Amino acid sequence: MFNTKILYMKKLYSLLIVVLLIHFQARSQIVPINIGTTTLETSTLLSTTEIPWELKYGPGDSLWMTTKSGLILRIHPTNGGVTTLLNHTANVWQVSESGMLGMVFHQDFTNNPYIYVAYTYTNAGLNRERLSRFTYSGNALINEFVLIDGGNIVANSIHNGSRLLILPDNTLLMSTGDAANTANAQNSSSLNGKILRVNLDGTIPADNPIPGSLVYTIGHRNPQGLMLHPNGKIYSTEHGPNNNDEFQVIEAGRNYGWPNVQGFCDNDIAGETTFCTANNVKEPLASWLVAPGGTWAPNDMIWYTHPSIPEFQNSFLVTFLKTAKIRRVNIDGTGNSITGETDFFVNQWGRLRDITAAPNGDIYIATNTPPSKIIRLRNLTTVPVYMSDYRISCIQGKAQLNWTTQAEIKNRQFLIYRSTDGINYELISTLPSLAPGGTSDIPHSYSYTDNFAGAEQVLYKIVGEDLDGQRKNFEVLSSPCQYGAGDIRIIPNPATDQTLITLPNATDFFNISVLSTEGKQLFTSVAQRNLLNISVNKWPAGTYIVSIINQRSKEKINKKFVVAR
Ligand SMILES: [Ca+2]
Ligand SMILES: [Ca+2]
Ligand SMILES: [Ca+2]
User: Fold this and answer.
1) Cα 117 to middle of ligand 1, angstroms
2) How many Å lie between the centroid of ligand 3 and the Cα of residue 243?
């Protein structure tokens, strides 16, 4: 009885702690923001008195977040519900920039349910930083195992680095700051002002640049952005002192210059070129010089690949604290050169600390201006399917449709329609989505073979239908089984609303123009697919001429069709 009461009191007490630490509000109303041609739905998922540091979409289709005070929270991605997985506040030293900071998941979380986290602590009056692993079990993070400690990383109230990244070879990179002692950065025997590389059991990788040392790169001031790009390169952002914030590629064994070099080797600091030559300094891809003085304070970033926000697709999205914005950064095919930079959401939500994206393309941003928020961004118009490939072929006399998705969002199924006149479409089959729950940002391939034959012309249309009944139509394809390789047909003919021009199912490009019988050009287009759809609903009744030129062979064909009213 007594024990039960104690247990109950303990539970009540821990519940009270959570309530005191996390004051959060329900989602705010949706605010539309236009970027380019896309309207984003923006909303506040969570508002908290805690200060977020790392925000990552992760296991359990949830957001995971560290707070500077020493919490690790799991947050529901649509209703903002919070579960406290770890309360480490008693162990964390939090002053100004220090606290519980970077976090990363094991790459095979199902079989190895580990998270790795960097935090600052105090031992016998000394401020230190360590890298620890926790095991996820039963809605809690337990069994702390320390990978890097021994008092080897000095912590300070500023410049603690702490961004974590696990590489495909199961080694972990951890950035450290100079802890406000600039001499640390060029001192290879100090673990401060570095990017470190450690095995997941805490041992030193045998192929590290300096044998027996965790040091992977030297000469850093305070790198707080770190990510692996699909091109295999590691990118990092780093805070500059009064200017010269850096965006750079991290390479093993390189010297990144601090404090002798700021930004490029361009002698804005005396003696830079001499130092750069002597130490093989790796220059950044960008040095954000802010005049007249003052840094932008870049933080973590993502490489956004999802097609649902075309303005952001295949771009870096970098968060900034002082300038309170997201900067889109584009690179060329080599990955070594920036091709464009554009700012978004300037001063929209205050200082921005971190950014992450869900498999459905939704973006989440953690702000750093109290009360801190998690902002969700998504395309206001949800589309169930994004195609990466979509084609038709004739296999043993049967039309075969093949398509590969680039991404699916709450996609229930594909509807397949057939038409023999280009006007009336009959639903002939449905294929359920292969994406788990209908949502996936990895490709899935689909195929449908139709046994139907016996019409002069057969057209197919594929439609994606999501779980809410919203639909996305894909272009009509014409079966190549019904005609020879060079066949060009116009159907329906006569037309009233639209007409379809079938083209040889080849990789050639065709210049297509429609002329009146008097020779006046009414329509022009370039087509590659095996079909071109022309709307004729505003055209007067009469006869028209279609001129089709194969760009490769220069072969020209004229055909007539009629618009009837
Ligand atoms: Ca992050
Ligand atoms: Ca540098
Ligand atoms: Ca410089």
Assistant:
1) 12
2) 10
